[in-house]
């Protein structure tokens, strides 16, 4: 056994995974109500991305239901072209999701860096997303937010779909009806259903979004001039009157594929893997190799840098009122304060009731443990040895990481 392996902590397999099992390395992103950092699991030394969401903020923004739905979905799925969940846990302040770490950045970032994507590269992304969406359909899931911001590249340049915050599950014969998504990428039938109260929509909406994304990657702007401020009624009219303009320089195959994806009528839209494999423009795609990541991407992110905004790390260290690297001391102080205070003097009984409900209903998940239980040939973990009381190195002082620092500042991601 190497000296490095001997220094690894060993956790009791009966113990639930928790915050102390991870070394926090650096902040890399944030969403509407959550933040993301790179972590290393202390016992296996594997690297992951960890998304953490403050419970009180989720309650105030009425987002708890979305978080629970996302966890429910992610705990049941796994695919080579998704960003997969490995662990979920909670403490008094936050809910945590630990997922695959993809260091290639999202497609929005690369668009903002003025990357010129080739037709072959975009065709590969379309095919990889087709495999992901085909799998999601087999699990009865509509993603509802496919866009460049939610497609992450690994270090080799393969695309992975992430963020199931507004995804929904529909069983056979059911239709979704909610107005959900990011307007520039939402399919016409979503708006039509909202305005006219029609029959709703189904899996076809995600394929429209893939078409919008692919067009944007090739041209630098989207096929329709839609913004978040546009009224829904005006968008229904727009899809009925405005035609998509395709660049004259694009090949006939690419234009044909985009036309099939950007068909307003969902009944005529390409919306399944079978449809894609039958498309003449994709006749030469080696689907078996592609499904195993054996097709080499045309665009490979620069491995010498992190493709993120470095201000995320500065905000976490300087501006964040509850920085992650000081969590352990903060929780200990809060616990001491709570024990010394009469519980009947709670300032906000409703908030406390909500926090108690989250604590009770949150589902802890450990895919690593699940995989071991399903594989009888897997080696058992070593039995933990008694440990001394010495405090481990503070997360903020970790310097052993070989991760590069973030590259030049990039504008904040987001679609209007």
State the helicity in percent bands.
Answer: 25-40%
Whole-number mean pLDDT: 84
Terminal CA distance = 54 Å
Spatial order of the strands forming the largest sheet: 1-2-3-5-4-10
- How many individual β-strands? 10
CATH superfamily placement of the largest domain = Phosphorylase Kinase, domain 1
Q: Could you give the order of the helices and strands?
A: HEEEHHEEHHEEEEHHHHHHHHHEH
User: Over all CA atoms, what is the radius of gyration?
Assistant: 23 Å
The level 1 CATH classification of the largest domain is: Alpha Beta
Compact description:
By secondary structure, this protein is α+β, with helices and mostly antiparallel strands.
Descriptive report:
It holds the Pfam family Pkinase. Residues 325-334 have a biased composition (Basic residues). It comes from Trichechus manatus latirostris (Florida manatee). Belongs to the protein kinase superfamily. This protein is an alpha+beta fold. The protein has two domains: 3-103 and 309-391, Phosphorylase Kinase, domain 1; 107-290, Transferase(Phosphotransferase) domain 1 (Transferase(Phosphotransferase), domain 1, Orthogonal Bundle). 35% of the residues lie in helices and 12% in strands. The protein is built from 15 helices and ten strands. It has helices spanning 3-7, 55-60, 64-74, 107-112, 119-138, 188-196, 204-219, 232-241, 252-261, 273-278, 287-290, 311-319, 327-339, 349-361, 367-374; strands at residues 22-30, 35-41, 47-54, 85-90, 94-99, 141-142, 151-153, 159-161, 168-169, 365-366. The longest helix has 20 residues, at 119-138. The chain starts with a helix and ends in a 42-residue tail after the last helix.
């Amino acid at each position: 056994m190497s000296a490095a392996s001997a220094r690894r902590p060993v956790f009791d397999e009966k113990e639930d995974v928790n915050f102390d099992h991870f070394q926090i390395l650096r902040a890399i992103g944030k969403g509407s109500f959550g933040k993301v950092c790179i972590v290393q699991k202390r016992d296996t030394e594997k690297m992951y991305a960890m998304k953490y969401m403050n419970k009180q903020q989720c309650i105030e923004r009425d987002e708890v239901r979305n978080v629970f739905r996302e966890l429910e979905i992610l705990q049941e799925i796994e695919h080579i072209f998704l960003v997969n969940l490995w662990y979920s846990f909670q403490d008094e302040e936050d809910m945590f999701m630990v997922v695959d770490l993809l260091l290639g950045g999202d497609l929005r970032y690369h668009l903002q860096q003025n990357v010129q994507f080739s037709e072959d590269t975009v065709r590969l992304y379309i095919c990889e997303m087709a495999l992901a969406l085909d799998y999601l359909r087999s699990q009865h899931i509509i993603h509802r937010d496919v866009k460049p911001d939610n497609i992450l590249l690994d270090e080799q340049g393969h695309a992975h779909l992430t963020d199931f915050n507004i995804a929904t599950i529909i069983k056979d014969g059911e239709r979704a009806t909610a107005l959900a998504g990011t307007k520039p990428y939402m399919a016409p039938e979503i708006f039509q259903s909202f305005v006219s109260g029609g029959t709703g929509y189904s899996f076809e909406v995600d394929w429209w979004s893939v078409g919008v994304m692919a067009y944007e990657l090739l041209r630098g702007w989207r096929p329709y001039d839609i913004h978040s401020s546009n009224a829904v009624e005006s968008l229904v009219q727009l899809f009925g009157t405005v035609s998509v303009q395709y660049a004259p320089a694009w090949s006939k195959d690419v234009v044909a594929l985009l036309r099939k994806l950007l068909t307003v009528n969902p009944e005529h839209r390409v919306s399944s893997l079978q449809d894609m494999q039958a498309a003449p423009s994709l006749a030469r795609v080696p689907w078996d190799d592609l499904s195993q990541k054996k097709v080499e991407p045309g665009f490979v992110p620069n491995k010498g840098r992190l493709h993120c905004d470095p201000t995320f790390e500065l905000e976490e260290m300087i501006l964040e009122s509850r920085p992650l690297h000081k969590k352990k001391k903060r929780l200990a102080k809060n616990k001491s304060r709570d024990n010394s205070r009469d519980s009947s003097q709670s300032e906000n009984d409703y908030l406390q009731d909500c926090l108690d409900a989250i604590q009770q209903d949150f589902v802890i998940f450990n895919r690593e443990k699940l995989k071991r239980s399903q594989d009888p040939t897997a080696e058992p973990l070593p039995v933990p040895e008694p440990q001394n009381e010495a405090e481990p190195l503070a997360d903020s002082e970790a310097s052993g990481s070989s991760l590069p620092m973030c590259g030049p500042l990039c504008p904040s991601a987001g679609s209007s």
